[in-house]
Amino acid sequence: MKFTVAIDGPAAAGKGTISRQIAARFGFAHLDTGLIYRAVGAKVAEGMTPEAAAEGLVPEDLERGDLRSLEAGQAASKVAAIPAVRAALVEFQRRFARQDGGAVLDGRDIGTVICPGAEVKLFVTASPEVRAHRRWLEVGGDASQVLAEVKERDDRDMNRADAPLRPAADAVTIDTSEMTIDAAVDAACAEVLRHQRG
Ligand code: CDP
Ligand code: CDP
């Protein structure tokens, strides 16, 4: 059985949490594609060229412990604007999406570029202020700096020429600004069930 759920949206919208819950509930494999760009950004920070870092990426690179920081997020969004980096990562993501048993992928361009034929496409979003507050609860530090970084990354991701962040024409948008995470997960699962029943 091949079944792909594509989940896109800006930072701290709830994509990862929703994706993990969908994967657990429906028995699908899950790929956090942001981790791929974070891992490439980390290798570039260590001196590799962006192209070599993307072409040489191995699954273990996604397991390093320093990928969740704000700095790693900024480094990711910088390398993610380079077309050769994105191109080197397409096939791995597409193979993952079409594995037997179903898959959920979350990122920025899954519904638009990586899996335009996905059975379910969700665009998960929330206001910058709400998202920055959620991220601040996770990482701490200076709240106004967290908000500035979220906005800077949104801006870079939405305005790049290659695979900009935007909802696919046939995506269902879930605005989680005033939703609990449980309500957001329920809304997302309802979409999967709707498509499974045809
Ligand atoms: O993957 P993404 O960056 O889009 O977001 P996430 O890591 O799933 O969520 C960021 C944080 O916001 C997590 O701590 C979630 O539990 C929280 N969250 C929330 O409190 N309410 C929501 N409706 C969605 C996410
Ligand atoms: O968890 P959060 O939403 O903060 O970020 P992430 O999903 O880990 O993504 C980090 C960065 O990688 C994003 O700001 C994008 O620049 C880039 N990215 C991308 O370009 N395409 C994807 N499919 C996933 C992430």
UniProtKB/TrEMBL annotation:
It is an enzyme of class 2 (transferase). SUPFAM superfamilies: P-loop containing nucleoside triphosphate hydrolases (SSF52540). Its main location: cytoplasm. ATP binds at G9, P10, A11, A12, A13, G14, K15, G16, T17. Keywords: ATP-binding, Cytoplasm, Kinase, Nucleotide-binding, Transferase. InterPro entries: Cytidylate_kin, Cytidylate_kinase_dom, P-loop_NTPase. Its EC number is 2.7.4.25. GO terms for cellular component: cytoplasm. This is Cytidylate kinase. It comes from Pseudothioclava arenosa.
